[in-house]
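Example record for the data management plan.
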Amino acid sequence: MGWGFVPLTKYQGGGAEAVLEPLSEHLKDYEQLMIQYYGAGVQACYRGPRLYDTEETKQTVKKTIDWYKKYRPILNSDLIHLRRPDGRDWDGIMHVNPNLKEKGFVMLYNPLKGSISRKINLPLYYTGLSDKVLVREKGGKSKHYTLNRSYEIEVEVTIPAEGFTWLILE
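Corresponding structural encoding:
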């Protein structure tokens, strides 16, 4: 776990590019920022006069906080980097905890201007799983996988342009 700083308004420089106000005009960036922080188990200090400025912004904040609260135990668990971010392809992290129902939680990000589909190798040794795993993308329908002898599975995912997706491993 760690903490981060989110300057919603101007704070010691950075210029207009570093400001999210008005929040409703930067809603995609605001949501992405919250998902990146909470998805990494990072608690943020939000600096500004408000967390939302319109009903749509309020609903986005509420949806993201509800998502974090639902998966808080696994999102605050140990973290494995799947691919270092370089801005040229996907990057991702995986939380693991063999003592929870959700043994793993994968966050995948796409910094590119277009949607991408990739086959991604997930190392599941630290999840405590040794034979089979159920994988759900964004909490959807489960798909069964059998781990190979190296405690890995290969999943195929599509990550939206400048967006993210997540997987639950049970």
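Summary line stored alongside the record: The chain has a mean pLDDT of 93.
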